C-alpha cells in the first residue's frame, strides 16, 4: 500500500462508456439479505445506485453504505457485505442487533455528511468534463442536501435544535471543504468512470453470496480495472492499513468472481486528511480474502443457529446506539426472534475463525 498527498494519477479513461442519468440523490444502501440483480460493468446499467436501491432504497436506521431495509420480521442472513462483515468482526452482538433484530439507529452528522459528499461526487460526473470544477461541486452541496432530505426526511432531526441554522450552515461548510479537497487529489476533468455507486453481487462456489456498493469503477482502454472508494475521514495509521483495505479486497474479490478480472488497483481517497492510499492486489490476496470470508460466514451461521451472539467490548462501544440493550452496559437484548439449536460441542466457540 502506498500513501500519497499528490493528485492521484488519472490512469483510466472510460470515455467510450455513456453516462446514464441518475436519481437526484442516491441513498447508499448496504443490502444484507434481500435479492437484487447484479450489475454488469457494461455502461448500460450505470444507474447502479438506483438498481442497488431496489432492495435498499426503503431507507435504514443508519446512513451511508451501512443502511439496511426494515422487513416485517426477522430472518436469518443470506448474504454478506463489507460493512456487515466488519460489524461481526468488531462485535458479534452488534451484527445481531443490526441484521437479526434490525434495531433502529439514530443518524449521525458525520455519517450523513459522508452520504452528502458521496452524492455530490457521484453527480458531478453527470456534467461535461470541462464543467467539473471545485466551485461547481461546492455549489451542488445545498441542493444535494435538500434532495437527500426529500428522500430521508428523518435526517432533518439532526438540526431540529438549531433554529438559527448556524450549526447546519457550519455542517454544510464542512461538507463543501471535503468536496473541495477532493480536487487536490484527483482531476475529474480527466476521468470518465465506467460505473458510479455500482451495486455488485456474486455467489461463491460455497453458496455464500457477497454483495455491496462500489463508489467508483474506472476501466482503462486497455482493460485494467481500478476500484475507488471515497472516505470522508482521515487515513489510518500504517499499522491499521490492512483493516482499511478489507472492504476494498472484498470488492476486488466480487469483481474477480464476476468478471474473471483481478482489479489492477484499489484506491482509497481520504478527504478528511488529503491522502490517497493505493494497493495493487494479486490473485493470492483475493484467495486469502475468500477463505477469510468463508470462515467468517461459518461463525455467523453458528451464531445464528445457536442464538449465541457475544459482545466484544472495545473503545468503539462509546459510539454504539445499542448500549441500553447490551449486557456489557447492564442492558438486556431483545428476545431472540429466530429458533435456536443447541450447540453441538462446548468447543464450538461462537465468533471464532480458523486460520486463513
Describe it for me?
It is a single chain. The protein is an alpha/beta fold and 356 residues long. 34% of the residues lie in helices and 12% in strands. The protein contains 8 helices and 7 strands. Strands 1, 2, 3, 4, 5, 6 and 7 form a 7-stranded mixed beta sheet that branches. Helix 2 packs across helix 3, helix 5 crosses helix 6 and helix 7 (241-259) packs across helix 8 (283-306). The longest helix is centred in the C-terminal third of the chain and has 24 residues, at 283-306. Mean pLDDT is 82; it is low at 3-40, 42-72 and 346-356.
What topology emerges from the helices and strands here?
Elements: E1 2-4, H1 48-56, E2 79-80, H2 82-90, H3 92-100, H4 109-124, H5 134-151, H6 166-182, E3 195-203, E4 209-219, E5 225-231, H7 241-259, E6 265-270, E7 275-279, H8 283-306
Helix pairs in contact: 2-3, 4-5, 4-6, 5-6, 7-8
Nutshell version of this structure?
The protein is an alpha/beta fold.
What's the total count of β strands?
7
> Structural class, please?
alpha/beta
Low-confidence stretches: 3-40, 42-72, 346-356
In whole angstroms, the N-to-C terminal distance is: 20 Å
Features:
356 residues, disordered N terminus, 8 helices, 34% helix, 7 strands, alpha/beta, seven-stranded mixed β-sheet
Amino acid at each position: 500500500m502506498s500513501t500519497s498527498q499528490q493528485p492521484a494519477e488519472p490512469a483510466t479513461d472510460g470515455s467510450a462508456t455513456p453516462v446514464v442519468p441518475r436519481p437526484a440523490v442516491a441513498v447508499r444502501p448496504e443490502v444484507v439479505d434481500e435479492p437484487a440483480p447484479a450489475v454488469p460493468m457494461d455502461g448500460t446499467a450505470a444507474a447502479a445506485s438506483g438498481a442497488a436501491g431496489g432492495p435498499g432504497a426503503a431507507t435504514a436506521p443508519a446512513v451511508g453504505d451501512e443502511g439496511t431495509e426494515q422487513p416485517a420480521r426477522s430472518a436469518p442472513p443470506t448474504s454478506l457485505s463489507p460493512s456487515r462483515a466488519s460489524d461481526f468482526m468488531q462485535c458479534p452482538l452488534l451484527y445481531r442487533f443490526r441484521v437479526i433484530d434490525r434495531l433502529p439507529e439514530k443518524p449521525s452528522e458525520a455519517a450523513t455528511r459522508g452520504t452528502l459528499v458521496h452524492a455530490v461526487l457521484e453527480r458531478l460526473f453527470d456534467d461535461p468534463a470541462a464543467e467539473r470544477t471545485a466551485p461547481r461541486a461546492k455549489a451542488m452541496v445545498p441542493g444535494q442536501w435538500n434532495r437527500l432530505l426529500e428522500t430521508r426526511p428523518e435526517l432533518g432531526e439532526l438540526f431540529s435544535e438549531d433554529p438559527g441554522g448556524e450549526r447546519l450552515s457550519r455542517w454544510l461548510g464542512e461538507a463543501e471543504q471535503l468536496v473541495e479537497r477532493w480536487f487536490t487529489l484527483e482531476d475529474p476533468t480527466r476521468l470518465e468512470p465506467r460505473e458510479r455507486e455500482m451495486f455488485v453481487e456474486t455467489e461463491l462456489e460455497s453458496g455464500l453470496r457477497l454483495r455491496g456498493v462500489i463508489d467508483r469503477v474506472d476501466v482503462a482502454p486497455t482493460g485494467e480495472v481500478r476500484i475507488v472508494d471515497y472516505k470522508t475521514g482521515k487515513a489510518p495509521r500504517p499499522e491499521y492499513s490492512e483493516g482499511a483495505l478489507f472492504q476494498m479486497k472484498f470488492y476486488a474479490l466480487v469483481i474477480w468472481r464476476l468478471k474473471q478480472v483481478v482489479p489492477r488497483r484499489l484506491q482509497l481517497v481520504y478527504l478528511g486528511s488529503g491522502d490517497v492510499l493505493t494497493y495493487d492486489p494479486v490473485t493470492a490476496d483475493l484467495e486469502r480474502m475468500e477463505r477469510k470470508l468463508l470462515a467468517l460466514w461459518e461463525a455467523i451461521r453458528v451464531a445464528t443457529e445457536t442464538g449465541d451472539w457475544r459482545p466484544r467490548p472495545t473503545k468503539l462501544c462509546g459510539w454504539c446506539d445499542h448500549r441500553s440493550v447490551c449486557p456489557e452496559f447492564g442492558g438486556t437484548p431483545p428476545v431472540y426472534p429466530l429458533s435456536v439449536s443447541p450447540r453441538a460441542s462446548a468447543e464450538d466457540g461462537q465468533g471464532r475463525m480458523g486460520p486463513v
